[in-house]
Amino acid sequence: MPTTSTHNHDVIIIGAGAAGLMCAAQAGYRGRDVLVLDHAKQAGKKILISGGGRCNFTNMDVEPNNYLCSNPHFVKSALSRYTQWDFLGLIGKYQVAYHERDFGQLFCDDSAKEIVRILMSECEAANAKIRLRTEITAIEAIKDEQGTITQYTVTTPSHVYQCQSLVIATGGLSMPKLGATPFGYQVAEQFGLKVLPTRAGLVPVTLHQEQKEALSELSGISLPVRIEANDGTVFGADMLITHRGLSGPSILQISNYWNPGEAMSIDLLPNIDLAAELESVRQSNPNQSLKNTLSTWLPKRFVELLMSMENLVDKPIKQLQHKELDSVVAVLHSWQIKPNGTEGYRTAEVTLGGVDTDAISSKTMMCKNINGLYFVGEVLDVTGWLGGYNFQWAWASGWAAGQVC
Ligand code: FDA
């Protein structure tokens, strides 16, 4: 279709996701004429499927160290100016019922649709317009005689738009099925910004064929574990065995800190001191077999498989030599698993890496050296832990840009 007309707006936001919608409402409330463009046919698609359809929209306990970023200080300003309590204020304004789960995670009682309804209502109240099903074919900067950018041109198949402030809120690469694209990274590169290497985060890991086949028989079993990555980062939560490998909250969390080729050390009995427990069984029940003893704490089928994978011989506890006991304790408290990869962007919740924050103001999200160009949300090199931290970053960074764009 030929380009037909030019429309002027104060602010154009590309991406009607969590960060883009928050930014749009904030800028709109300041009286700015705001237009949000998105190629999807629905706004906030990731919000809708998040948290199993109930959206883990924030966390009771948000700290900068819940985030990975090449500059760990970058997140501090935005997170402290728009906090989880501010978002809870919005939840209260719309009377959305919510509940707290483990680790301070806050979910809607009913549906993630309520979060999208809040954001859409806020945009409407702030008079920010949203145009969906809109492909962006080009972005250009218009400069004055001194070479300073004064305006941006955003071209779509049907319109050319001009704006003073251009906000890129196109998110990361996870779940291409939901409309994720590398658009934001391409815009950053077009303007000479560095994009740090990206990879899938908060993602299940896959195993080498032999381990995968052995463990897949137990798919569906979930165990409370404590997992340590090579860099010493530790997460304690459930681990789920799947027919492709390992998943569950502990695995998703550690996947952000795991690098290909490295092993993970899994404490399968994080709540007991196995050496002490085995010693006590040796005294109280010396004829009990190792398998039966371990099966008091772990599912029997898992114990059988683990013993065969790790060559642990089954015999009465009283017959175990000290060296054998040490091996049992080592396997159970630090089971070494070397994933062969992750399930990738197809199932990842987030993208690690992205637009380098060195070039971005942590207060406003505007590029330090490019007047009027902003990046918010997951497109930046900011990745939160599992638990509502990624949405909190989207709200906080979108809010920060919305105060000034
Ligand atoms: P987001 O991805 O939300 O929005 C980007 C928007 O840009 C989309 O609307 C997209 O269509 C649009 N776009 C992309 N390319 C475009 C282009 N070329 N042209 C036009 N538009 C374009 N986090 C959390 O805190 N709690 C949770 O419960 C979950 N759960 C969860 C489940 C699943 C399955 C996933 C995949 C992710 C989560 N997350 C999460 C992560 C969370 O969804 C994510 O971090 C935020 O949505 C990021 O917000 P953004 O606004 O930055 O991007």
From TrEMBL:
Chain ranges passing through the membrane: none
Domain RsdA/BaiN/AoA(So)-like insert: 199-350
PANTHER family tied to this protein: OS12G0638800 PROTEIN
Pfam families associated with the record: HI0933_like, HI0933_like_1st
Cofactor(s) this protein requires: FAD
Assigned keywords, A-Z: FAD, Flavoprotein
Every RsdA/BaiN/AoA(So)-like Rossmann fold-like domain range: 9-403
Gene3D superfamilies: FAD/NAD(P)-binding domain, HI0933 insert domain-like, Translation factors
Domain of life: Bacteria
InterPro entries: BaiN-like (IPR004792), BaiN-like_dom_sf (IPR023166), FAD/NAD-bd_sf (IPR036188), RsdA/BaiN/AoA(So)-like_dom (IPR055178), RsdA/BaiN/AoA(So)_Rossmann (IPR057661)
Name the UniProt record assigns to this protein: NAD(P)/FAD-dependent oxidoreductase
